């Protein structure tokens, strides 16, 4: 499953893994993170999403996203564009109310 998801990520810019509670989505995300890290891919696993509006240091949603990643992952290099970067968000339903994320990041992906 992790290998197949890695293949999908190589061809798709956005992948939504959904399922009922306790079906293994969090475990799959962590296994994917570990697998991609071994492949020298830059992976950011976010278990508690913070609205991008809290990071309006930049002029657009992308700058806010990278400000958030820098705050959440100090010591990691975060630069745009970053080819093959993966952002895995656990409990992504928390993103549904983040207008800045949907109107800038997802719309452009």
TrEMBL record:
Pfam families: KTI12. One of its GO terms (molecular function) is ATP binding. It comes from Aspergillus ellipticus CBS 707.79. This is ATPase AAA-type core domain-containing protein. Transmembrane segments: none annotated. Keywords: ATP-binding, Nucleotide-binding. Coiled coil: none annotated.
């Amino acid at each position: 499953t992790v290998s197949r998801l890695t293949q999908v990520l190589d061809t798709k810019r956005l992948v939504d893994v959904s399922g009922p509670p306790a079906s293994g989505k969090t475990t799959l995300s962590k296994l994917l993170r570990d697998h991609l890290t071994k492949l020298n891919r830059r992976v950011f696993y976010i278990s508690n999403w913070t609205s991008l509006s809290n990071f309006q240091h930049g002029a657009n949603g992308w700058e806010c996203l990278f400000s958030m990643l820098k705050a959440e992952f100090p010591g990691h290099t975060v630069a745009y564009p970053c080819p093959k970067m993966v952002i895995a968000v656990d409990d992504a339903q928390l993103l549904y109310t983040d207008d800045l994320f949907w109107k800038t990041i997802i719309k452009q992906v």
